[in-house]
Specification:
Elements lengths: L7 H16 L7 E6 L5 H15 L5 H18 L10 E9 L8 E8 L9 E5 L5 H7 L4 E7 L3 E8 L2 E9 L13 H27 L5 E8 L3 H7 L5 H4 L2 E6 L5 H35 L5 E3 L1 H9 L3 E7 L4 E8 L5 E7 L3 H7 L13 E8 H11 L3 E5 L4 H9 L3 E5 L6
Parallel strand pairs: 5-8, 8-9, 11-15
Antiparallel strand pairs: 1-2, 1-4, 2-3, 5-6, 6-7, 10-16, 11-16, 12-13, 12-14
Helix pairs in contact: 1-4, 2-3, 8-12
Length: 422
């Protein structure tokens, strides 16, 4: 059974968390990473950590030894919360991390538990000055399958590409005669025979491609390639199932049709795959901009209005720019418990917090305001979307439309289920 495709929001959140972990650094070699795959027992991981604890007692530096031992104990405590690693495994990061300002003496023990996006295959322990997130980062790269079909008049190759895994599934020879006419045959008759052979060969290639590509649930697109015009003749004909024809995303010139030709396509594939998501984003944004241009009443934008209509249940789809650099802050008065929420830019957060020191509460006038919660605005609206049965799309700024969402609409817009009467 195939794993359901993660939404743009889930991928955004995972990348954000893992990138944050990747950026953390310890003052010394004292940050613990442990990957526990599904085929291991929790007891295996606990035994490994017990052995590492014994080794760590020999560390000469008192501070480093204490931090490593504490990190191992914290990892053990986290592991004991699980009966088993589950279908995908568990990844745990623990360690004494420098707080704001850095330097020795500012460390605080922190721990993070990640359920990976797909089953992990390694049983790994590392003690380092950084967390080892590279295996998780590799999982977050696009894992949809792309079909590669190379064809010319002589040969054809069918392959699949998933992440970094390339599989050449089938190679075949056409058996079609060359363009040079055999002695004694009329040119017209020879061409007719050759066209028949070519058509039969194309049908054979198409049938094999249908058998290979149609059962793949995660098939995102098909790239056709080859030297010369033959690939265009194949693409124009009815040799591929209509479902596969709709998935053709590019036709490339390659110098070869064998394995070397497949590698040529793979070299160009990252940009092609990136283009696929851009196309999806452009289509979403173009639907939104169509409604804007026709003043249909089925869109809105701006945080306050989007939030208000979400709470009314009127929003079908929220569009959020991934470059929306805003944070939702909850401020509480410790004297009368009054709470207020504000949306501010991350760069202004420190000044905002300083400004609360002498600021009087709007209710009781006491200067007792403190920040009790901070949440990235994308996460805040995403949480609200779960309560209001609203879809969320996180849009990059790689397209002109994505730039427009950020710059013209403040990075926050929505498409509505019904018109709102003002």
């Amino acid at each position: 059974m195939s794993t359901p495709k993660k939404s743009s929001l889930e991928l955004f959140r995972l990348r954000k968390t893992i990138n944050a972990l990747a950026s953390k650094e310890g003052n010394h070699t004292e940050l613990i990473t442990i990957y526990v795959p599904p085929d291991k027992q929790i007891s295996d991981a606990l035994n490994l950590l017990r052995n590492e604890y014994g080794t760590a007692t020999n560390i000469k530096s008192n501070v480093t030894r204490k931090n490593v031992l504490d990190a191992i104990v914290k990892a053990q405590q986290k592991l004991k919360l699980f009966k088993d690693p589950g279908e995908k495994g568990i990844v745990i990061f623990t360690g004494a991390l420098p707080q704001e300002g850095g330097g020795p003496g500012t460390e605080r023990m922190e721990s993070f538990v990640i359920v990976p996006p797909e089953p992990i295959k390694i049983f790994l322990y590392r003690c380092d000055s950084r967390f080892h997130t590279e295996h998780l980062q590799e999982m977050l790269r696009e894992k949809e399958t792309y079909g590669i079909l190379l064809v010319d008049a002589s040969d054809a190759t069918i392959a699949t590409l998933q992440g970094k895994r390339l599989d050449i599934i089938r190679q075949m020879h056409s058996g079609v005669a060359g363009k040079t006419r055999a002695g004694g045959q009329s040119a017209r008759r020879y061409e007719r025979l050759r066209d028949m052979q070519l058509n039969e060969y194309f049908m054979r290639v198409g049938n094999h491609a249908n058998e290979i590509f149609l059962p793949i649930d995660t098939l995102k697109g098909i790239i056709i390639g080859g030297p010369g015009p033959t690939k265009y003749d194949f693409e124009k004909g009815d040799y591929l199932n209509y479902q596969l024809k709709n998935k053709i995303i590019d036709i490339l010139d390659t110098a070869y049709v064998e394995e070397q030709g497949v590698k040529e396509v793979v070299d160009k594939a990252p940009e092609i795959m990136k283009k696929v998501r851009y196309i999806e984003e452009k289509e979403i944004m173009q639907k939104f901009l169509y409604e804007v241009g026709h003043d249909s009443g089925f869109i809105t934008y701006g945080e306050a209005e989007v939030r208000r209509l979400m709470n009314m249940g009127a929003v079908r789809l929220v569009l959020l720019s991934e470059d929306t650099d805003l944070v939702r802050v909850t401020v509480k008065c410790s004297a009368c418990n009054t709470q207020e929420e504000h949306t501010i830019k991350y760069k202004d957060l420190a000044d905002f917090e300083k400004g609360l020191i002498e600021k009087p509460c709007s209710s009781c006038k006491a200067p007792s305001l403190t920040i009790v919660d901070k949440k990235d605005l994308v996460d805040d609206l995403a949480d609200l979307s779960q309560l209001t049965n609203t879809e969320v799309e996180v849009i990059s700024t790689e397209t002109e439309e994505g730039q427009m969402l950020k710059n013209a609409f403040g990075g926050i817009a929505a498409m509505l289920r019904f018109k709102i009467q003002n």
